[in-house]
Structures are given as C-alpha cells and as structure tokens.
Write a structure and sequence with these properties.
The chain is mainly α. It has 16 helices and no strands. The protein has helices spanning about 1-15, 20-40, 40-55, 65-80, 85-100, 105-120, 125-135, 145-160, 165-180, 185-200, 205-215, 225-240, 245-260, 265-280, 285-300, 305-325. The radius of gyration is 22 Å and the shape is globular.
C-alpha cells in the first residue's frame, strides 16, 4: 500500500546517508527482508539484489548480516531453478560465517537451509543429517518454530525413504513440542503429515480421523486456509477410495470451492489430478476424465508450459490405462 511505499523510500534515504558500515549492513538486510517477505511474489528479485549488495561488504564484524544475505540468495536461486551448485555454495558460505560469529540461531538456520536444499535434490539421507545437526544448535531461549520445522522435515525425508516408523516418530516429536508451545498452525500441519502416512499405509479410517484433527485449529480461520481446503480434498479423496459417494462429494466440493475462492490455480489443478487419479484407479473412467479436463483447463489458462506439459502427460497416462482395460 501507500504507507509501505513511503516506508521503503524513507529507508532508501537513510541508506544513502549512512556512513557506518554495520548500520548500512543492517539497513540493507532490512531492505532485503522487506522485499523478500512482504513483496515476495512481485519483488523477490529486488530482495536478491539487496542481498548481493550485502555480500559485497567486508564480512569481518558483519558475519550475521552477510550470512543472512547468502541464505536468501540460495533460496532465490533455488526458487528460479538456477544452478544447484551456486545455491549450495551460498548456503555453505552462510554456514561458515555463522560459525565464525558463533550465532547458534544462524547456524541452525544455515544447516536447515542445506537440509531443504539436499531434500529438493532427493538426497534424503544427507538432508536428514543436516536437519539433525541444525537441531543440535537449538538453544532453549530461541523460538521453537525452526526446531519444530526441522523435526517435521526429518519426518518427511524418512517418509520419502519409505521408513514410515521413523517418519511418524519425528512428526510426533514435532507435534509434542508444537502443542507444548501452542504453535497451532504447526500442530495442524503435522496432523496432515501423520494422516498422509496413514493414508499411504492404507489405514483409511485412521487417516480421515487425523486429517479431521488438523482442521480443529482456529488459526485456519485467518491463516493458511489453502491447507484447510487441501485437507478437505484429501478427506474427500479417501472417502472416494472407500466408495462412500455422499461424504466424498461433500468434502471434495467444499475443498474445490475453497481453493477456487482463494484463487490458487496450481493447488486446484493438483487437486483435480488427485481426484481424477482415484477415479481412474476405481475404474470409473468417465468421472476421471471430467476431472482431468478440469485440470487441463486450469493449466492452459495459466499459460505455464511446465504445468501444461505435466497435465497432458497425466491425461496421456490415463488413456494408456484405459486402453489396457
């Protein structure tokens, strides 16, 4: 809004006048965070440019600021699918600087970033090691959010390795801390993770129960409603597998309406593909095709080449399965 723009202009004025290097670094990092966190979709590149300016400063005595900047640069390069090696290099520099200034939170943050980076490369065992090292740097006076997230990420990585017992163990550890420190949104997301495992294991009734527990949190009324509506769709999809048509339709329709109202086309397309896949597995090809076509329409409207190609590939696989039957 207008006030935000005025605040940014004021910051620019202060930055141009500032002679003290540490204060200048502080202002640059503030600018970097403002663009990255509050103007994320439109100005992520601006956040990256300010981060570059920070990394040009002599890091001596400014390690925490420069480490933050390198972490952001790594995130940005990953988000635009730039060179993995370049992103990795920024994360490694951030960790090195964090260790120099002996700031445990930045050490934790840097190790966590390396864990996410290696998980994205499907190097799950390596990512687990990074997340565990990040947890070792946690101090009791710190906010627990990153600790909980790291435990969740370990659980997710074990899930990818098909070690579901370990996945449940780490998600449960995360849930226990989230409940203790009243992190309601985290608790809800962890319930979704645990329900997803039960679903993979074929424990449909338990999965539905756990998904529904994730909806209990009041925080969904104002924050991350995409998770809420995505969860409603997951519940509907399980009811579909159980061939409980009335319950399936109720939850699927409610989830789809919510995602459409929030204007989240990618989430909506993925949901259509998931429901279509379930109908395909049940041998109900006409219903499956209807959802595949809905997914195709969204992909084409978004004009995203990758999404269009991915959606057409899913439809092509459907036709191959149909021909076999």
């Amino acid at each position: 809004g207008g006030n935000d723009s005025l605040a940014l202009l004021k910051y620019e004025e202060l930055l141009l006048k500032e002679k003290d290097l540490k204060t200048q670094a502080h202002l640059l990092v503030d600018f970097m965070d403002i663009y990255n966190n509050y103007y994320y979709e439109d100005n992520e590149e601006m956040g990256f440019k300010y981060a570059q300016k920070v990394t040009m400063l002599d890091p001596a005595g400014l390690e925490e600021y420069v480490a933050d900047a390198h972490t952001l640069m790594g995130h940005y390069l990953n988000s635009i699918e730039q060179s993995n090696d370049e992103a990795l290099s920024h994360y490694q520099i951030a960790l090195k600087l964090a260790r120099i200034c002996k700031d445990n939170f930045i050490i934790m943050q840097s190790l966590s970033a390396l864990g996410i980076h290696t998980a994205n490369l499907r190097e799950y065992s390596k990512s687990i090691d990074y997340f565990k090292k990040s947890i070792e740097a946690f101090e009791s006076n710190q906010d627990s959010s990153l600790l909980i997230t790291n435990l969740m990420n370990i659980g997710t990585a074990y899930g990818q390795l098909r070690d579901f017992a370990k996945s449940i163990e780490y998600n449960q550890k995360a849930l226990n801390i989230a409940r203790k420190v009243k992190k309601d949104l985290h608790a809800s997301v962890i319930h979704v993770n645990l329900a997803s495992i039960e679903e993979v294991l074929g424990h449909h009734d338990k999965a539905i129960h756990t998904y529904k527990k994730s909806l209990d949190s009041y925080i969904y009324e104002n924050h991350r409603r995409d998770i809420k509506f995505g969860t409603l769709l997951k519940i509907g999809n399980i009811y579909l597998k159980k061939q409980n048509e009335d319950s399936a339709k109720y939850y699927i329709d409610k989830g789809i309406k919510g995602l459409r109202d929030l204007d989240l086309p990618l989430s909506l397309r993925n949901s259509y593909l998931t429901v279509a896949g379930t109908y395909k597995d049940l041998g109900r090809y006409a219903a499956a095709l209807e959802y595949y076509y809905d997914a195709r329409e969204i992909a084409e409207n978004q004009k995203d080449t990758f999404d269009i190609a991915y959606t057409y590939n899913e439809i092509a696989k459907f036709y191959r399965v149909q021909e076999l039957h």
